[in-house]
Amino acid sequence: MTTSFDTEHGAGVTASAPAPALAARTRGLRKVYRSTVAVDQVDLDVPEGAVLGMLGPNGSGKTTTIRMLLGLVRPTEGEVELLGRRMPDNAQHALPDVGALVEGPGFHPFLSGRENLRRLAAAEPRLSTSDIPKAVEDALERVGLGIAAHRRYKGYSLGMKQRLGLAGALLVPRRMVVLDEPTNGLDPAGTREIRTIIGELHAEGVTVLVSSHLLAEVEATCTHVAVLHDGTVVAQGELDELLESGSPGLVVSTPDGDKALQALQSNRIPGKLTPEGVRADLTATSAPQVVEALVHAGVAVHEVKRERTGLEDLFARLTQRDAEGDRLSEVDEVKA
Which residues form the ABC transporter domain (predicted)? Predict the structure, then answer.
C-alpha cells in the first residue's frame, strides 16, 4: 500500500506497506438525483478490521455513499464491493454479515423496545427461533436498554431510539458494522458507551464504518478516516498518518533547549524553542537526521515525537475554500 498526502500544497509523505484486505470499496461512485449530484466519483477503501470514520459537512454525500454501499440505493455510475461481493446485485449474500444503523432507526411506536427487537430478530436469517430471546436480551443489555426494554418505543428519547437501532445491528456476530451518526441524541454518558462498544467490536476484529460530525469522537475511536466534501473524497487513510502529514515538525523534549537550538542551526535545520525543548522543521530533513544532529552535539534527548495536527484543524483545511474558490488540498488517497 502506498499512502500519499498533499495537504500543504505539495509537501508530501510517501510510505510503502503491504496492501490491506478491504471489507468494502467503491470506484468511480456517482449518484445523481435529477439535477443534483449527491456523490461524484467517490473512490473509498475500508480496510478489513479498521474503524473508519467518515467525516464531512452536511450535504457532503456521507449518507448517500453509505446507502449505496449497503445496496439501499443503486449508483448512477461506478462500482461497489461489500465483503467481496458486488453490490447491489449480491446484497442477499453480503448483508447477513453486516449490521447497520442508517438515518436513524424505525420501529413500531406502540410496541415495546423488546417486542420491536424480537420482530427484527425473527427476520434475521442466522437466528433460530429458540435463539431469539437470548439474542434480544444480550443486545438490549449491551446498549444499556435492559431496564427500559418493556417501555413503548413511542416514549423513548432520541438517544434511546438510537440505542435500540444499534441493538438491532448487533443481534448476531457481524463481520462489519455500519453506523450513521450513532451518537445522535445521546448524552455524554451514552456517547462514552457507544465509544466502548465500537472499541469492543474493533478488538473482536469487526470492521466498523462510522459516519459522524463529532470530530473528538472520531479522533478517539477511529483508526482510519475518510473526509467527504461536495460529494467527493478529499482525504482518506490512516488517522495517525493524516494528522502527521499536515505538520512537518518534530518535537524534542530536552533540558538543553538553547544547546539543541544551536545544534539545529549549525546543521541548517530550522527550529524554535518550546516549553518542552525544541521543535525542528522537517520540510527539508528527516527525523533521524534531527536526532543524529542533537546527539552528536551532546544534547540530552528525553523524548522525540512527530507534531500532530488536530483533527478539527485538518478537517477545516480540507473542506474550506480559499479566496479563489478552490479547495486548499488535492485528494489524498490510499492506493492498493
Answer: 24-255
**Phi and psi based region of residue 92 (left: phi greater than 0; alpha: psi -120 to 50; beta: remaining):** alpha
Global confidence as pTM: 0.76
Beta bridge partners of 299: none
Same-domain check for residues 31 and 153? yes
Nearest by Cα to 50 from 209, 228, 172, 234: 209
Looking at this protein, which amino acid is placed at residue 137? Answer: E
In 120-145, which positions are buried (b, 16+ CB within 10 angstroms) versus exposed (e)? bbeebeebeeeebeebbeebbebbbb
Query: How do residues 193-221 score in pLDDT, each as one tens digit?
Result: 888 999 999 999 999 999 987 888 888 89
Q: In terms of domains, do 258 and 240 share one?
A: no
Mapped onto helix, strand or coil, the DSSP state of residue 185 is coil
Number of independent structural domains in the chain: 2
DSSP string computed for 268-297:
T--EEE-SSEEEEE-TTS-HHHHHHHHHHT
Helix (H, G, I), strand (E, B) or coil at 334: strand
Q: Which domain holds residue 170?
A: 2-244
pLDDT single digits (tens) 278-335:
999 887 888 899 999 999 999 999 999 887 777 877 788 777 743 334 433 333 333 3
Average pLDDT over every residue of 163-186:
92
The grid cell for 21 is 484486505
**Rounded-to-integer distance, Cα 212 and Cα 21, Å:** 24
* Domain presence at residue 331: no
